[in-house]
């Protein structure tokens, strides 16, 4: 291929286009099925965030309760 391009540099754009097409063509049929898998997952994001949002403010206070107790657990075990 290098020799061909050395001998005919004017062919480089056409060869680049053909190589690009050769790489893209096999992938294009996969796009729609993958998007079909993504769409239902995206639809779950908002409901899951709606479940997480009310719980998030509770995390720090609960950790504040746990942190002083944790050092006591190891000696008891």
Provide tags for this entry.
77 residues; mainly alpha
Structural write-up:
- This protein is an all-alpha fold.
- It has one domain.
- Helix content is 88%, strand content 0%.
- The chain contains three helices and no strands.
- The protein has helices at residues 2-7, 12-24, 28-76.
- It is elongated and about 80 Å long.
- The mean pLDDT is 88.
Succession of helices and strands: HHH
Q: How large, in whole angstroms, is the Cα Rg?
A: 29 Å
**Structure class:** mainly alpha
Q: Categorize the overall geometry.
A: elongated
Q: Note the total helix count.
A: 3
Give a short account of the largest sheet.
none
The total beta strand count reads: 0
As for the number of domains, it is 1
Record the SSE blueprint.
Elements: H1 2-7, H2 12-24, H3 28-76
Question: What's this, in brief?
Answer:
This protein has one domain. It has three helices and no strands. It has helices spanning 2-7, 12-24, 28-76.
């Amino acid at each position: 291929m290098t020799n061909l391009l050395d001998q005919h540099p004017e062919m480089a754009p056409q060869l680049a286009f053909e190589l690009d097409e050769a790489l893209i063509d096999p992938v294009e049929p996969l796009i729609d099925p993958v998007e079909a898998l993504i769409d239902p997952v995206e639809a779950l994001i908002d409901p899951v965030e709606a479940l997480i949002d009310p719980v998030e403010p509770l995390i720090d206070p609960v950790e504040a309760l746990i942190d002083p107790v944790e050092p006591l657990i190891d000696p008891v075990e």
